[in-house]
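Standup notes, protein team

Yesterday: finished cleaning the Faucicola osloensis set.
Today: FCD domain-containing protein structure.
Blockers: none.

Input for FCD domain-containing protein:
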Amino acid sequence: MKVATQVIEQLISLIDREGLKNGDRLPAERHLCERLGVSRTALREALQQMNSVGITESRIGSGTFVKDVQTIKQRQPLEALSDNLILQTLTPLLDADPLYRLDVQEARIVLEGGTAWYAAQRATKQDIEKIRFYYEQLANSQAHGDTEQAAIADANFHLAIAEASQNAVLLQMMKNVFHLLRHNVVLARRKIYTEHYGFETLHTQHMAMMNAIIARDSELARKAVGEHIEFVIKQVAKIDEATARRQRVSRLATDVF
């Protein structure tokens, strides 16, 4: 995790812990650096990012003030704000560069194949309940047409499997790429769900992953994850190619007429 992102989380915790309201002034930079144990450069970068999404507002000669405390008080505020800040930078790259999205998916095959392998061996009853919870939440959200919540549940489903691996390093690696994972899931699902059979196929694949873990079959769990992500890669590539083809034909038709 970038230093600035860590500082953002510390600042949000401070705002929340001290009950600061909209319009309240944050402590001076020097005091914040001392309290958080960070450099002034890291603090300024964090504040700049918070200002950019409207959480705080810096006024020349006056300091930095809380501007949108409601966002901070939302459910899982640190995660929500981190997503917003990180995706401001990543969204243009992920949207514009299919190869970068492919890199994320390939990394998922390697990383999540390993977490699924160990999850099948080590998942506790509570772990399995959590995996099942997000599986059902995913299915329910999609059935009601809420694709954004379905994407979040999808990402949480994969993260729950990583937690069930009981491997601190693998879990930390998953958390470090969780923002990439969530955004990549959103992009992929928007494309795949334009196809009629997309929901049923992904639903079946998620069920296979969950059932393999419940059955304590490590090899089957790893295989299910790999097949799922490879399917996503192929389907997104196919849809991208079809979209590009239609755009070429459309431009040609415009030029002719």
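Follow-up from PR in the comments: Strands lie at 56-59, 63-66.
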